[in-house]
Amino acid sequence: MIRRSFLALSGLLLAGPVAAQQPPLKVALIYSKTGPLEAYARQTEAGFMLGLEYATKGTMEVDGRKIQVILKDDQFKPDLAKAALEQAYGDDKVDIAVGTTGSAGALAMLPVAEEYKKLLIVEPAVADQITGEKWNRYIFRTGRNSTQDALASAATLKDENISIATLAQDYAFGKDGVAAVKAALAAVGSKAKVVHEEYAPQATTDFTASAQRIFDALKDKPGRKVVVVVWAGAHPLPKLMDLKPERFGIEMAPGGNLLPVMAGWKQFPGLEGAIYYYWGFPKNPVNDWLVTEYKKKNNGVPPDFFVAGGMSAAIALVEAVKKAKSTDSEKLIAAMEGMSFDTPKGTMTFRKEDHQALQEMYHWRMKKDAPDNVDLLELVRVIPASEMTLPIKNKR
Hints:
Elements: H1 2-19, E1 25-31, H2 38-55, E2 61-62, E3 65-73, H3 78-90, E4 96-98, H4 103-116, E5 119-122, E6 139-141, H5 146-155, E7 162-169, H6 172-187, E8 193-200, H7 208-218, E9 224-230, H8 237-242, E10 250-253, H9 259-263, E11 272-275, H10 285-297, H11 305-324, H12 329-336, E12 340-343, E13 346-350, E14 357-358, E15 361-366, E16 377-383
Parallel strand pairs: 1-3, 1-4, 4-5, 5-6, 7-8, 7-9, 9-10
Antiparallel strand pairs: 2-3, 11-15, 12-13, 13-14, 15-16
Organism: Reyranella aquatilis
Family: Belongs to the leucine-binding protein family.
InterPro entries: BCAA_transport, Leu-bd, Peripla_BP_I
């Protein structure tokens, strides 16, 4: 009897380690929760958590490991973004990091990922340099880059002789954006030419002087005259329109933006541009789920621009760990290079050469009678990834 009890107890002791729970899968989400792009960051967080829920079917675990998300606010400051990632890898021992909101912050983070030999999924920072000359092999990006934005915009401006002036913010995002616009026009064979570049500080609120220089550069040009705006945060379009560019036959091409920003453009029916995501455009099960679930949690308001991006990053992370069956960096890199995964925008693919996610974009037109502040846009056409020939800019 004693022997049987001992054997039973031994069996329990042996079974204990097998049944023990796996260590958590630690993920750091670094974002600018305070600062000028707070709205972007909050959307990224909301989308990221929904993406984990979707990708894990509500279990919030991968291969028996509970997902632990550690949130870090870099306050839109590059030095804090760098420090947050160092802390995440060094002190928190995270397996993978995701971030950040601003391009300058993301660029500051890239060498940290290389130093620690840990993966960083960049979302939603846009600057080309992130997967270009500043890139390293530990960097993957689900967010689009400036050239993808520019190629999409160029696809809407390629059929005529057009004179273009650009207005952009005077930092990495804006300068990369304008360079990408010029390269994209050439890449799609557009007859359009950039005849003036205008840069303004990020905090600019009075655009009178900038607009005057733009109007002077365009007003005597033959054919169509278009201002391409590359801007993050509070958008200058309404203030530019107040200066009546139409008196010179000048059109605006503002790109895409957040729903609250674009709601202010309802007064300009017929306005056109290209956009990364708009909730009503993609037709696929992932987006259907996102729209339904986000509306449930947000009083019927649909998901916005960066919600979709955050969700895409989370899905990519979960699918990568499943495919690699590990969080070892080398195994993850091998699994993720060339990996395709479903997102609210449809299928994305991490290009092997620079780990940039290839993805579709959308040509939109402002509805003539938009019924409210979220049902704003009509789809002109989907711009497929195959139509946007994205140059490889890194030095791999």
